[in-house]
Specification:
Double Stranded RNA Binding Domain, four-stranded mixed beta sheet, DUF302 domain-containing protein, signal
């Protein structure tokens, strides 16, 4: 009887943990809306949620802020800067403390670009910054 109840308890624990959602980092996006929308930034930032990152940097303690800024110069050159910052989570667990532990910034310019090409460049630069952030955190 004891074996059966212990087996059922273990089975229940395994089944409930199998359905548990992957912890998510708290994210703050402060990007220029005409370069990248919040959904695209959030989708790109999901690359940070890897098993290694979750093991090394708990979402209960750390979050991320993204900034994609830029636009067109007078000569129609698209200029983009993308930044990802790793920030500590505040005491409440619902806010980020703007004291960056790690920052990664990427930038680029594309002469004669259209608005769509500029948006693609913004997405590419944010993806590059996210990948550099993951690499620097896992390798350090």
């Amino acid at each position: 009887m004891k074996f059966r109840s212990a087996f059922l308890t273990a089975l229940f624990a395994l089944s409930s943990s199998a359905f548990a959602a992957t912890p998510q980092y708290l994210v703050l996006d402060q990007s220029t809306p005409n370069l990248i929308d919040k959904a695209s930034a959030a989708a790109t930032l999901k690359e940070i949620t890897t098993p290694q990152m979750l093991k090394l940097y708990s979402p209960k303690k750390w979050g991320f802020a993204t900034e994609v800024e830029g636009g067109f110069t007078a000569s129609k050159t698209c200029v983009v800067t993308a930044r990802v910052m790793m920030l500590p989570v505040g005491v409440s667990g619902k806010t980020l403390v703007f004291k960056a532990e790690k920052k990664v910034t990427t930038f680029d310019a594309l002469p004669g670009a259209t608005q769509e090409q500029c948006k693609e460049l913004a997405n590419a630069k944010l993806k590059e910054a996210v990948q550099a952030m993951v690499f620097s955190l896992i390798k350090s």
